[in-house]
Design goal:
32 residues; mainly alpha
Length: 32
């Protein structure tokens, strides 16, 4: 696995961890 791909995967995992609470909050709002 090359370094560029590893960096991309790490960036996507940080992005997913940042977006997950936001998505959960939006889904928990009634009528959203």
């Amino acid at each position: 696995m090359n370094q560029r791909l590893t960096g991309t995967l790490i960036a996507y995992s940080f992005l997913a961890m940042a977006l997950l609470p936001i998505v959960m909050t939006i889904q928990s709002i009634p009528g959203a």
